[in-house]
Amino acid sequence: MSDKLSLSPDEIQNLSRAATDLAASYYDSLSDRPVLVPTTAQALRDALVEPLPQDGADFDSLLSTIREVIVRYSRHNGHPRFLGYVASPGTPVTAVGSMVEAALNACVTCWRSAPAATELEHLTVDWLKEMLGYPAAAGGLLVSGGSMANFAALAAARSARFPDVVRQGVAALPRRLCVYVSGEAHFSVRKAAGMLGLGENNVRTVKTDRCLRMDPADLERLVAEDLAAGHVPLFVSANLGATASGAVDPIGAIAGIARRHSLWLHVDAAYGGFAALAPSGRPFFEHIAEADSVALDPHKWLYLPVGCGCVLYKDPSAARAAFSHDAEYTRVIGLERDEAFAFWDYGPELSRPFRALNLWLLLKYAGARRLGEAIENNIACAKYLERLVKASGDFEMLAPVELSIFCFRYAPPGYAGDLDALNERLLVQLQRGGSSYLSNARIDGKFALRGCVLNYRTTERDMEILLDDVRRAASR
Ligand SMILES: Cc1ncc(COP(=O)(O)O)c(C=O)c1O
Fold first, then answer.
1. Residue 171 lies in a domain
2. Candidates 186, 191, 251: which one to mutate for ligand 1, based on the most atoms within 8 Å of Cβ?
3. Does the model's pTM come out above 0.90?
4. Quick one: how many helices (H) and strands (E) in the chain?
């Protein structure tokens, strides 16, 4: 055995063959596993905690800990009936890609540091724009996720309008800046307003209609109110697939209001963005080109492994106003314009992983057509669930299904108790049961069982099993 930090080609083959066997049998067993095996923090600590290891261990014993503890006690996001939150299942080809990515270990700060990786990122970001129908002249970069994309978009909007704030801080702001979201917006927009010094209290909640879409008349009213109070309406974030309900805001009408009042229009498409590849999702993108920025998450509905979000800026110079920095250690010397490109001018990170590799790999390997079919099938599953619920005598829908998110509850006829409490208990039972996994939402004040179909393995049969699982949990 050579030095543990520098292995021979044969040793690398042996390690990776053992790890690949584990990954292959994991994928093979995924659908038959419980989504989650109940455990406790203490039980996991008992199995894992030990003093800092001084001497190395052999790889097989580590793989056995991975198999027996880490794999066993993970929640399996790739299971066909894991329907909680907004979680990608990942794909086998990107699992293999992640190994290559780690072997290359590129640090994608700028062209000079990672020439091929930088060009691959430009290419894949161009493909994302093409998928959406977003202007080819727009800029953008891959970030850690949707929260970071929302943060970067708000930072760009703030600095584009008030460039002095970058150097002088929020004290340079003449008046209070206002941000507008519906009550369905992801909390990361409000959090970004806090982090950027705009203040979470200056995020206005616009009313929604029956289908939980932002009401443009209420947006207009709030903007007028803020203008009359001497504030500056800065930024409106429209949902293209809200986290809890999947609602899609009327982007065309919101864009009209944004134009009239010089508001920056951001579209949070972190969940819904890749519905653009599916024929039934396509109409939602009619007005996407009017957005000043867009948040996307390939690590959601493009099935990429966790850690790949994207922010698009219609005018990339707005992002430069927020993020561009010069320091002697990053000064680019002796390179032409394209080769002088630096990602740190467009986003908050300096060291960045090679996110584009898996994005490129999946798009090239599976192709946009196959991905679009899978996404269309996810939407069909959610609509099928909605039909099953409506045809049942014991369930009711709490929100319409727009994309692949569904919110419903168990409401057996004649039940005189508290339906919120009943469904809360059901959710816990269901999650413990291991056959199907939902998360929760509150819709119109009611506790909802919430599912999101985001997995190419999920079928309409899984929707039937899910309802049976909920009924079984109720009978317990
Ligand atoms: C609409 C929306 N925006 C933003 C986010 C945050 O994304 P991330 O978890 O990648 O930071 C989510 C997460 O579910 C989301 O659904």
1. yes
2. 186
3. yes
4. 15, 11
